[in-house]
Automatic annotation (TrEMBL):
This is 6-phosphogluconolactonase. One of its GO terms (molecular function) is 6-phosphogluconolactonase activity. The keyword Hydrolase applies. It comes from Neolewinella aurantiaca. CDD domains: 6PGL.
Length: 245
């Protein structure tokens, strides 16, 4: 059984810095050319975006990065719920990113049209693997308390973990909010998937998944295993507290 690659830090800020340093390492490894990074939404990445804006202005070669989103809420970009809007305010407005390399989901379209268009855009911009799936250099994902990731929830995982479209429309099980999400096969086509998970609210779920406990298969995160890429877990001590190794 291969032991998952864990990067455990003392607290949220330290997790953010560990990931930021990893981003710098990955950019250095891929010596030149574009770097394709998919972002996630929610609260955990906010700390990362703030720390990148404050302390990584000169450490990251921002002009090489193309930004994508693993999922996006179907709301206007200036809506407080927008994942794009969150990153723009916390990061893009503070570092020298190339505007034409920010590939946001076009939420002016209907959810169905936006999902189709985003999949086409990814196929146009990204290299693809032998299965014809687009390859991201780095797919940064979070995990909700129910074990969801991107907008692949327990309620829609049977469909979205095998969906052969690049992006699909998902509905948040509580709010009913429509979202565009990359599908499971696309997440697993990434060169590297990095989960950023912090806080004691996630301890039990992280333990169930990483300890391969009975019932873990009902959580979407359990099924995110890059086909040929790497998987790294950036955790704080609280989230990793009950991991059995
Ligand atoms: C979103 C995210 C979602 C998020 C998890 C974890 O659009 O909300 O992509 O998948 O990563 O819900 O969110 P927290 O980091 O806020 O717990």
């Amino acid at each position: 059984m291969n032991t998952p690659n864990l990067n455990v830090s003392v607290d949220g800020p330290a997790v953010a810095r560990a990931f930021a340093d990893h981003l710098v390492e990955r950019l250095n490894e891929k010596k030149e050319g574009p770097f394709f990074w998919a972002l996630s939404g929610g609260s955990t990445p906010k700390l990362l975006f703030k720390i990148l804006a404050e302390d990584y202005q000169d450490k990251v070669d921002w002009k090489r990065i193309h930004f994508f989103w693993g999922d996006e809420r179907c709301v206007p970009h200036d809506d407080p719920e927008s994942n794009y809007g969150e990153v723009k305010a916390l990061l893009f407005d503070h570092v020298p990113v190339v505007q034409s390399q920010i590939h946001a989901v076009d939420t002016t379209k209907s959810p169905e049209e936006a999902a189709k268009a985003y999949g086409e855009l990814m196929m146009q911009l990204l290299p693809s693997n032998s299965d014809g799936l687009p390859i991201l250099d780095l797919n940064m994902l979070g995990m909700g308390g129910d074990g969801h990731t991107a907008s692949i929830f327990p309620s829609n995982m049977d469909e979205l973990l095998t969906d052969d479209s690049i992006c699909a429309v998902a509905i948040h099980p509580e709010s009913g909010q429509k979202r565009v999400t990359m599908t499971g096969p696309v997440l697993n086509a990434s060169d590297e998937v990095a989960f950023l998970i912090t806080g004691n609210g996630k301890t039990q779920r992280v333990a169930q998944i990483l300890n391969k406990e009975h019932g873990a298969e009902k959580f979407p995160v359990t099924h995110i295993k890059p086909t040929s890429g790497k998987l790294i877990w950036f955790l704080d001590k609280a989230a990793a507290d009950e991991v059995g190794y």
